[in-house]
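Work Package 3 (structural annotation) set out to generate three-dimensional models for the target panel prioritized at the project kickoff. During this period the team completed the workflow that converts sequence records into discrete structure tokens, so that structures can be stored uniformly alongside our sequence database. As a representative example, we reproduce one entry of 275 residues exactly as it appears in the project archive.
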Amino acid sequence: MNQQERDRAAYLLAKKYLSELGVEGVTPQLIEKQLCLSETKGRTQSVGEILMRLLESAQNANMRPIVIGGSIGGVKNLKDVLFDFSPAAIVEAYPTWESVFDQIQLRLKPTGKLRMTPRSIWPQYCRTILSASRFMAQFPEASDFYEWVDFFDKDERGRPALPLLIAQQVAGVGFPLACDFLKELGYVNFGKPDVHLRDIFEGLELCLPKPSDYELSKAIIRVAKHANVTPYNADKLFWLIGSGYFYEDKTIGKDGRIGSRKEKFIEYARSRLSE
């Protein structure tokens, strides 16, 4: 089969595999709901809310969700230290990452051991807070930010440059997390090229071996186009298989978790794609 046929077949196999797992509650209807943005997501109405979304995406890697959000009850609880996520107020009040960290420790008292070495998670995240605030301070209103993003989003050729620009300006936010930030704001033309998508796409030969984040992102967009769905939809489908985490439906499995089915799916789909 050609690339277009392989892409579409892989997407349809992923949907079939997930719906036939036999996990209670994981029905075709639930899957379709998961593949669409919920009504609670999408464009926010203030620069502060956008900054909060950016900081939420910035902690969505490795151990950060546990060390950051898990230790303070969620990124949203930084609002008291970050002046309700006002970029201008944050930049004015905090000259260094240490000053941010001091206030977080004093007022929020994060649980767990707090390491102060430069490469430790909290110091790095405080640098992210400052650089993200400087970045968002460029936009007086939320509409200014959306106008800037829309400029890139409407041009398929220029779209991949947007997460690259954000990654350059916000410390600790690489290309994948920048894509995550954009898609969680409702920009469905972006998928997050994370480890689960990387393993599945390489395993099914939907991309070249060891692709860059940018190359993997382009592959997600291509598969979505051939499957006639949005990149958000395709990303979420393969991510659900890889992570096994239905975080929007906590009644599924154990608090939304059914365990990764990545390796079994790759084996399942590979044999059928070679027929």
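The longest helix spans residues 3-19.
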